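Q: What residues go here?
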């Protein structure tokens, strides 16, 4: 008897069902929490976007990037000048020597560019590590002050975002991925402490400078 082929839409439906079942199970567990449990939510994207710390980090990163670009232009001009000089050399041996020197300079420039790219990436990663560390620290302090048992990251939006992104990823997969990452179906705006936490973080950052 030939094996039964499964439609990709059936598979997608089964996956979606499994995500929903998991969500209902999580909701049921939350429902068992004691009545006096205090929960607050934070819109992480909105919080980070307005942070003074992030704004100053971005200035630092832009300055570093500008310095790197200035050096790129200088090194490019040097290589172009070397090429012009090579073209003007008539002696074959001297031309070969100049070409070898230019080739070595080009390799050194490529290695330098890779090093600077890693440096910029390292600084950007340090920014995110520090910002996230400070978010956790100030969220803990705020929770202790206000008596919150949990501070939960709110979902970024009600609707799934299917436009844009990698065109090679099917829309169905994008939808299922987003559903699978969701951990909260609803949160009351009354529980949102995003602005309060941002104010605390900006004040703490200003004092630390």
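A:
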């Amino acid at each position: 008897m030939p094996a039964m082929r499964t439609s990709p839409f059936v598979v997608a439906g089964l996956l979606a069902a499994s995500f929903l079942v998991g969500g209902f199970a999580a909701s049921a567990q939350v429902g068992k929490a004691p009545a006096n449990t205090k929960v607050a939510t934070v819109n992480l994207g909105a919080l980070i976007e307005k942070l003074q710390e992030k704004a100053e980090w971005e200035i630092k990163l832009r300055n570093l990037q500008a310095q790197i670009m200035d050096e790129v232009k200088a090194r490019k001009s040097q290589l172009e000048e070397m090429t012009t000089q090579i073209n003007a050399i008539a002696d074959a041996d001297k031309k070969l020597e100049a070409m070898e020197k230019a080739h070595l300079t080009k390799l050194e420039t490529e290695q330098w560019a890779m090093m600077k790219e890693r440096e910029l990436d390292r600084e950007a990663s340090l920014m995110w590590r520090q910002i996230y560390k400070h978010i956790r620290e100030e969220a803990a302090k705020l929770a202790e002050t206000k008596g919150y048992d949990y501070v939960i990251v709110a979902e970024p939006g009600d609707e799934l975002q299917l436009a844009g992104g990698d065109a090679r990823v099917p829309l169905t997969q994008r939808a299922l991925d987003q559903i699978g990452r969701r951990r909260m179906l609803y949160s009351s705006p009354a529980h949102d402490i995003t602005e309060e936490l941002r104010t605390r973080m900006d004040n703490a950052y200003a004092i630390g400078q």
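A: Context that may help when evaluating the design: The beta strands are 39-42, 150-153. The chain has one domain: 36-170+188-208.
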